Fold these 2 entries.
Entry 1:
Amino acid sequence: MDGLDAAITILVGAIRAGTPLVFAALGELIAEKSGVLNLGVEGMMLVGAVVGFMVTVTTGSVYIGILAAVAAGMLMSLVFGVLTLSLLTNQVATGLALTIFGVGLSAFLGIKYVGTPINGLKPLDIPVLSDLPVLGPLVFGHDLLIYISFALFAAVAWFLYRSRAGLILRAVGESHDAAHALGYSVIAIRYMAVLFGGACAGLSGAYLSLVYTPQWAENMTAGRGWIALALVVFATWRPGRAMLGAYLFGGITIMGLHVQALGFEVSSHLVATLPYIATIVVLAVISRDATKIRLNAPASLGKPFHPSA
Amino acid sequence: MQLRLEQRQSTSRAMQYATPVIAAGLTMIAGIALFGVLGTDPFLALYTFFIQPLTSLYSIGELLIKATPLLLCALGLSVGFKGNVWNIGAEGQLTMGAIASGGLALAVYAQDGPWLLPLMLLAGALGGMAWAAIPAFLRTRFNANEILVSLMLTYVAVQILGHLVHGPWRSPEGFNFPETRTFGDWGQLPILVEGTRLHAGVFVALLVFLAVWLFLSRSFQGFKVTVAGQAPAAAAYAGFSNKSVVWVSLMISGATAGLAGTVEVMGTIQQLQPVISPGYGFAAIIVAFLGRLHPVGVVLASLLMSLMYLGGESLQMSMNLPLAVTGVFQGLLLFFVLGSDVLVRYRIRLVRTHQTEPA
Amino acid sequence: MTPQLDLREITKRYPGCLANDRVGLTVMPGEIHALLGENGAGKSTLVKIIYGVVKPDAGEIWWNGSQVDIANPNAARALGIGMVFQHFNLFESLTVAENISLGIDPGHDLAKLTNEIGEISERYGLPINPHQHIHTLSVGERQRVEIIRCLVQNPRLLIMDEPTSVLTPQEVEKLFETLRRLASEGCSILYISHKLDEIKALCDTATVLRLGKVTARCSPADETPKSLAEMMIGSALPVTKKSTNRELTEEPLLELRGLDLPAADPLGTHLQNVTLTLNRGEVVGLAGVAGNGQKELLAAINGERLAPDKAMLRLDGRDVGRDGPEERRVQGLAFVPEERLGRGSVPEMSLTANTLLTWHHKGQVKRGFVDLAEVSAQAITIREMFDVRCPGVEAEAKSLSGGNLQKFIVGREILQEPEVLILGYPTWGVDVGAAAAIRQAILNLSATGAGVLIVSEDLDELFEICDRIAVIAEGRLSPARRTGNTSIEELGLWMSGQFEAAEVSDAA
């Protein structure tokens, strides 16, 4: 029973640690499926995290905080959209700019909030169900946002592969010229996809600062936005695999902590490098299969679109 | 009436020079607005941010000290960006350069001589190159995205540095502070001007500037990098190997970033600490774009960026505003640089329309 | 009778050119109407206006007796206008049915649509499997998808933009049958082409455009190809001069020997056992429908993809299969690639820099540094000798017109005095004058003893300048026939891959 308990603790921990990645990766996946590569996930997450935190402190309501984080993420992605979609800037450079801006802005906004305690979002306590052995903690013991992440996954998967709007989105990402010639509004569709990505990144940031930690610290995302970007590639642009990958990475993060807790003499600094090294290794392994990438990656990913051209 | 972008027949030279100035101007305006919102006197704040750091010999020395690592990193990055090789891990390569050169200085502690100085510079460059070789190898061998790999390695490098200064390399005389010994005399760059901290690292940067300029404007290899960046299919047609362009770009930017870290620890810090760079490697990305990926432009941009770091400090000291203002300005500046770039390739036209656009 | 479509005084101006200048065009119901004109005459702009992709600056569009404003392609489709573009608007990773679904108005059932596709495909002789992914289809099949996409909406007007360049001669015949059948059911057809014999064979009436203006309206049946050409270009078609008494020697310059190369791109073509000999002073043409391995073959000959065995490719007697492009160039190979902008040239670089792109092995680079004066002098020579019209050699490649840029690229390659010159679609999308100049330059080069290999879809062009012609189909190469000993019909059969039984005796 001890082994089982430990396993459940690790699994639940992996889900919790993986949830911000799920949000961010699903949002980026939709943006990329429409053909837009937004490297600003990290920046949007940070701004979402700090805004969510500030609003929670000010209003006393975590829920309003979460909504504010979503709005902040969308606002950030709107900046990105205006630059890349309307002003046709380079998507890679603009995404980097968004991250640099987000790092600076969030540090600036959050300076008075470092160390402020809040009451984060607590796990739902469903009578009876939450107390079930195994299933209780694994299925019924989570906080609201984790259930929202499940629902979001289902919605994204349904949207992409079962709805006409999803078909149009995939078509725009595959060939914006053809979609334009057929009369689809490439720019408007991409704006929506980018905004959705921003909303998800904001939500992801809110999860970190309002649920996972819960507190605000400068640069608290610690590269999770970038890992989410890598996850989209690992997943070869499929939501199911992105979700699994997110939990896997959550698991790796948790493992590091558990290794130390078990009393092994490992430098905490070196343990902290694990998720990054794992990202690099998996990225190399997946990218190796050029055929798979070629057949799954949206063909016009990262390419600017100008209707008259 | 609506605004519409119209493609120019050929890129506008005038706009190529004008856009960085336009971007700097827009950043200034945004700054006024930002300070206004914060309730501080915007003009006093701007004066404190942009002018005050230039009013003493000491602070001009500081300006050059901070511009040095920025310039070094940005010169290397601009080569890669021209070739469409997106090394965004200069911060990590900088850290590795510092670890390599600092490690050398610590290893020969108290037995050094004049030979140590060039050897540390070499070790730093090699350290940066070794760190950049990882994304180069993974990209050319496994097709792994160099953006993500180089960035992930930045986090790894910073953790390794943290591990070293907290553990094996911690100074025995340091009262348990996480820092190494101060390097020996030959492990430090000489001071150039009395009364300032300005050290000989500036010369290293100038030499690298000349080399990169020559490389990009005159060398055939530099031409290959540019072609690969602008038109990959044309590069393949001409037989310019993409793999070699990736390697050359990453080796150059790795070496310059490694040198930046080395110069920083040899000249300014003189030991290893958990944090040796306030994000020079990332700010250098902005510097490279603001300088339009041209070495001369990059020199000017690195001075402006350095001024922004100093301005942030000066605001913090005299007006009690958070240092993070610098980060906000950096981001805004890059947005404006990228956004105004549209003027180079497109003309903005006001068109009368009575119908809606199909797009 | 009310015209189905009536354009009045349509004008459209782009920066630097007047694409349509008060153009009028009338198409009657059930009529097959040709829109004739050479590249750059303004045909594409005009049809994009009809289809709502481009908005005219002035003029009126009348549809079935009432004036309309076609704001976008959806509006055009709602009126009953369908269009098959020259560049297909298909999504490779989606299925046929999904592609068709995307091209019609929402609110239909995909299963029902799939049935409908089956019916139409049978009725009009356009066989297709609705569940297949586009990337598995041949170019001809893709065109069928485009046509069916229009037909499921019961169009009143079908616009076909240069539809035959991607078809074999036999497929062209089938397409014409389909179109005639549609016209007999009352659908108007606007047929855009610059191929005079096709227009004579198919169309009832024709409107001729030149430099954005209507220069003639006629019944093609009453005209000769010569008179149509004069309306189209304002003068007689230029002819190239082939030196008549050339003796072809059997001295191989380029030999492909059983070249076998799996596709690098998963959507590409596998080259299988490709064998071909190109002799001194000879012009060999390679016909075939696009997407049958032309791109892969050109890349393999250029050295962008190395052969598995160095003996599979021989250049002037040396095995070069494992040499890269630069090494092959040093050994006398030159190549005009299939795409001008972005491959044959770097769009945002000057003509000088674009000269250096392939011309750097003859003293232009010294100890790793470029001798800019030397390169610039060469660029000036190319510009003068090949009549490249541009402000100067510092002009960016993208600022040149298609014809001038192509003349520059061809000039750059020919002036390197290659032993072997390879050209991919050298006159595609080029105006008649530039095309004639390019053909003449090719013939002149071959007269000096070089071997020339031309990959092209334009059979007329190949018959005009080649000594021998072979066909590439699905990555395999047919035997090469002397131009006088073959016919369009035979090449057409070969294009669909039916050359297993062909005799090899005629090769060389």
Entry 2:
Amino acid sequence: MTSRLTRGVLAAALVLLLSGAPGSQALAAENYKLIGTEELKTWMKSSAPPRLIYSLSFVEFEEQRIPGSICIPMELMAKSTDLPRSKDQPLVFYCKGPG
Amino acid sequence: MAAGRAVDMGYRDVYWYKNGIAGWRKTHNFVESSDYSYANRKIPAPLTAGELRQKLKTDERYILVDIRDDKSRKKLGSIDGPTLQFPVYRLHMDHDGLPEDKILVLYDIRAKQAPSAIRYLLKKRFYFINLTYLKGGITAWKEAGLPMAAP
């Protein structure tokens, strides 16, 4: 039984690995994925970075931001012209973080 | 949550970088600023909830500026006192509407955004003596058991 469980876990890990998506990510509620710092850093340096979006306010974005990101306050997303037309383009959202 | 909203808008490959700027800095990654001197500028000391309550009762120059969004306001309620609503996500567009002849006390949920809003207003046309913020935000006000506005 243990070996069956182990095989199941290994199979799931292999599926994730082969999917081409960034490494360790959990599928959060609401159908978006979580991404860690090193994965994001690597992806931003790649030839096909995601659109990285700060989601609070321009006031805070002016003070400090991750290089390569743009600001689209969440409340203004519906009317923003800075979101890509293609619904398949990867988007990564962030804000200040914990603390 | 912005990532959830993007999913609702039909985007199919959406991520949330939960560590945010704090996590990015922690791993010694470079953080940009439009103006490094402004980002580190000293701001007026905040008022505690008790101090604010006293000022609102005795000094009509003090006026609250609620910088939260509508959703937070409806969910958490508002402080009882003369209030202007200027959500921080629109402050860069709307700040001209703020009065210059009052002492503006900015407040948000936990005083995480108010300092940035203060620094922004100092860069515009406001002076040190016209601005302050509520230490601990409305969370601190409620924890002190102070009056809330009628819904």
